[in-house]
Q: What sequence folds into this?
């Protein structure tokens, strides 16, 4: 085990209140596309296709793109997800805050998960709030021309009656994009004794601001294949490698294996 990995292992061993920030890099190890890599979603299509404006103007085309690129109902959690669940059950991980919308943390068994950018598992009418599973929306796409219009709100104004996926789009604001939501997240990070960052470049605001709220002296452990703006921050320890492989090495060391 190299010295940097040994240091990160010791930090995690001694921590009892770890807050974890995760991004696309943990999900790519399950086979899900990321967004900004050379082979990511935005290498094939412009970002505006996932904007609120595009959704309102072209709802059918938006859904076609979203289902093809964001919806992975059969994908399973990987070793990284499973180890975080194990550490949560051991009382070591207190909270996961994720940019991901795939629900793999919950599939792995993690209970304390904040989905900062929402979830692709369902959608809701913008007027009445009626919830539709994404599986139901896929079936509606095959059976109905105006599948994106809520069954209960067909007489309402056009945009109000649309069924929108419960993900945060460009120009949109989600459940956690409120003063109360930010305060909850900031308090969790301020109370952490270790901040563990997995698979995110930390370049997308406002998620990228969260490491700034850790208390002075609290270690920042970053496991990500690419660089982040925090790699040279005080108290940062960086490993550029696979998340699953790295967490597995740390977990085995913690278990004395």
A:
């Amino acid at each position: 085990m190299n010295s940097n990995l040994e240091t990160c292992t010791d930090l995690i061993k001694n921590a009892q209140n770890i807050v974890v920030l995760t991004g696309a890099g943990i999900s790519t190890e399950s086979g899900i596309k990321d967004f900004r890599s050379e082979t990511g979603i935005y290498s094939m299509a412009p970002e505006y296709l996932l904007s609120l404006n595009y959704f309102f103007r072209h709802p059918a085309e938006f859904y076609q793109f979203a289902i093809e690129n964001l919806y992975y109902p059969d994908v399973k959690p990987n070793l990284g997800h499973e180890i975080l669940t194990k550490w949560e059950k051991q009382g070591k991980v207190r909270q996961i805050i994720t940019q991901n919308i795939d629900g793999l943390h919950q599939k792995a068994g993690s209970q304390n998960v904040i989905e900062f950018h929402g979830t692709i598992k369902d959608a809701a009418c913008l007027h009445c709030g009626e919830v539709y599973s994404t599986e139901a929306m896929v079936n509606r796409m095959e059976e109905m021309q105006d599948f994106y219009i809520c069954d209960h709100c067909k007489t309402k104004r056009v945009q109000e009656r649309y069924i929108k996926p419960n993900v945060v789009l460009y120009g949109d604001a989600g459940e956690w994009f409120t003063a109360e939501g930010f305060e909850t997240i900031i308090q969790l990070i301020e109370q952490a004794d270790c901040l563990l960052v997995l698979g995110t470049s930390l370049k997308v605001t406002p998620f990228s601001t969260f490491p700034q709220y850790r208390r002075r002296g609290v270690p920042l452990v970053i496991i990500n294949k690419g660089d982040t703006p925090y790699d040279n921050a005080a108290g940062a320890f960086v490993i550029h490698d696979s998340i699953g492989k790295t967490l597995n090495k740390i977990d085995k060391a913690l278990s004395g294996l």
Summary: The chain has a mean pLDDT of 93. The CA atoms of residues 161 and 244 lie 42 Å apart. Strands lie at 18-22, 93-98, 113-115, 118-125, 131-133, 163-167, 194-198, 220-223, 236-239. The first helix runs from residue 3 to 14.
